[in-house]
Amino acid sequence: MKLRWKEHEIIFVSMVTALLIAGYIKTSNDGTEKLYQQAHVPFNIFVNILIPRIAKCLLIYGVYLFVNFFTIPRFFFPKKFEAGTSRISVSLSKISLQGIASKVLKKYTWLIIQIAAITLVLGTAFTVFIYYEHEWLFHYPGFSFFPKHGHTNDQLIDVYGQYFLALFITVMYILYAACRDLVIHHLNRSSRRYLVLILNQVSWFLLVLLAIPAFYYAFEFSRREELATTILAVAIPGFLLFMINTYWLFPSKAGKTIFTYPVLVRVLLAVFVTTIPFGIGLSNYAGHSSPFLLLLAFQLLFVTPISWIYFTQKRDSILEIRGLETALVKSKTDLQFLRSQINPHFLFNTLNTLYGTALQEKADNTASGIQKLGDMMRFMLHENNLDFIQMSREIDYLRNYISLQKLRTQSSPDIIIEDDINDLHCHHKIAPMLLIPLVENAFKHGISLQEKSWIKIKLGCDEKNIRFEISNSMHAKKNGNVEKEKSGIGFKNVLERLKFVYGGRFQISVNGDGKEFFVKLAIQPEI
Fold first, then answer.
1. Domains of the chain by residue range
2. For the whole prediction, is pTM greater than 0.85?
C-alpha cells in the first residue's frame, strides 16, 4: 500500500484546471466588452478574454507539473548517488571545489536557476495577461510596462510586484512539495501501513471537498455563502466523525457491538467532540440553536450508523492491516534486538577471557562462565520469540549477562560495576529482552579501559510495577571505534517495543550531563 497524497493532488489540480478553462469558455461574454466600448478601445473576445485566461491556467498547470515531475524528484530524490570525498581549497586568488562539494554546489545552483527561470516566465506572463485582460485601462499614449520616474495619474501595471508574486508562489510551493514528498517517501518505506490507509482517505476527502467550491467558482454559481456554510457545518465534522469511528474507535472495540456500554459512551463522546466547535459557530451565525441541534442529530443518526456499516463491511481488511502492521514492527524490532544483543565483539571478548582464565586456573570460573554463556544463548534461541515471559527468566538472563561482563572487566580496578537486582515480588510477565538493551548500551558506552568507569544497575518490583534504573559513566568517542558509533540502536528498539506492547502503561526518563548517563524506567504490566 502506497500513500496517494501526491496522486490525489495532481488529479485535483488537473480537474480544477479543466473546470476553470470550461468556466472561462462558458462565461466569456461577461460584459467586459462594454468597458472597451466606453474607453473607445477595440475589443476581441479571443485576444482580450479567452486566450489570456486559458493561457494563464495552462501555464500555471505546466509549471506545476514541471516542479512535481522534474525539479523535486531530481533535487531531493536523485536516482543515483555518487560517493566520494569533498575538498575545498581556499587561496588569495580563488576558491576551488572538488568532489562532492562541487556536485552539491552545482545541485543548488541548478535549483536556483530553475526557480529564477520559473519566476521570470510566470512574472512576465502575469504582466502580459493583465495587460490584455484589462487593455482598456492601459490604452493611452506613452504607456510603458516600465515607466520612467515621476508621477502620473494614468493606470500602471506593477511589473515588479508580479515578479515578486511569481517568486513567492514558486518558492512556497517548492517548499511544500518537498515536505510532502519527504513524508510520502518516509511513510512508503516504513511499516506504518495503517497510517498510510488513513492518510489516503483524508487526501481523497480533501480532493472531493475542494472540488465542490472549485466547480462553483469556475461557473460563477450563486449562493456561495450557503455552500461554504454547508461544507463547514456538515462535510468536515461528518468526515472527522467517520474517520474517528471507522479507524480508531470501532477497531479498538472490534469484538463488541455498537450497543454495548463502552462503545456507546465513546461514540457519544466522539459525536459531541466533532459537533460542538462547528455547531456553536453555525448557531452563532444563524442567531439561534437550531443548527447545532440539527448537526448533532445528523452526526448521531446519520454519520454514526453509516460509519458502523462501513466498518462492519471492511472489518476484516481494517483489522488485518492493523494486525499486520503490529506484527511487522514486532518482527522488525525482534530482528534488530537479536542483531544488537548477539554482539560479536562482546562474545569474542568473553570467549577470549574464558580462554585466558582456563589457562591460568583450569577451574570453576571457566566452567561457570561457559555455563552462563550457554544459558544466555539457550534463552535467546528458545524464549526470545515469545510475546511474554516470566520476570524471573528476564532476571536470570540479566544476571548472567552482568556476571560475564564482570568477568571480562575484573582485571581493571578502575571499572566499578554495581548491581542491585531484587526479585522479590517480581511475579509479573514481561516482554523478553526488554531491559537487556539498556544494560548492553551501558557497558558499550560506559566502560573504558583507559579511564575510570562505573555502571550502576537497580531492578525491583512491587505489586503493580516493574522499576528499573541504570546509570553509567560517559567517555569521549574515539574515531574509528565502530562499536560506540552505533549508539542508540538498542534504546530506539526499547522505546518502539514499549509503545507497541505497553501503550501508555510505562514511564521512561533519560538524562545525561556529559559525564554520566541515566535511564529510569517504570512498567505497569498486565494483571
1. 5-79+97-218, 224-326, 342-523
2. no
